[in-house]
Amino acid sequence: MAEQKKKTIVSADSDEKLKNAKTVKPAKPVGNASGLRVGAVILWVVAIAFEVLALLVLLGKINIHIGSSLVQLIIFLVLDLICVIIGAQLWKKANHIQPASEKNKFKFWLWNNMGVVVCAFAFIPFIILLLTNKNVDKKTKTVALIAALVALVIGGAASYDWNPISVEEQTAAEAVFGEEQVVWAPFGKVYHIVDYDAAGEPVYCSSLNQSDTLTIGTVDQAIAAGRTRLCSFCAKRHNIEGLKTEE
Questions:
Q1: Residue 56: exposed, middle, or buried by beta-carbon count in 10 A (0-12, 13-18, 19+)?
Q2: Pick from 144, 137, 139, 82: which is nearest to 115 by CA?
Q3: I need a surface site. Which of 54, 56, 64, 135 has the fewest CB within 10 A?
Q4: DSSP-derived 3-state class of residue 31
């Protein structure tokens, strides 16, 4: 059997590198869901404002004197997209800290993907007006339409929560792990259980062999960091049932 690689564990509460998971102090709560949601809403309002400005430029109502009207349209669409995406990331982060219930599937999907809904409002009205406006020259209409469609697709994909977590799943994970420490890699969507050998040294899941740096914290911190599933290998090794894995 290949010798297991030495790991460096980074505390979830600080940048201090720790050699042993047993020395990590209980993790502090991660983030403030309400604050993140307020920030997301503010950014989304700003995004809609940029769309309105783009519409006003399209209708010839305003001119910011930066290049042609086409250049101005592109600028406002890009700013619109940036606000939509950043707002969506804040919203998803908040949902990982304070998840919604999945009892109502439609409400659960809608709440987790409010960014997608906002993205639609941030670009579709512009696209419709652009297509129906007969006063816009062909070049401007074509380029602006392509830019708006690309922004809609990028914004929608970036805003969609591909890895949602429900309050029921969070509660189940908390019931299993409590304040017990789990670890996760810099990339990926799962957290792992830490085992210890006879000498008290940490032993890590084989799927972490390629990761030189691990983060350690409570399962709540793992979920807040986007690691919403338990590693399937860890679940099988410890005979844990009732928790969703990456399979």
A1: middle
A2: 82
A3: 135
A4: coil
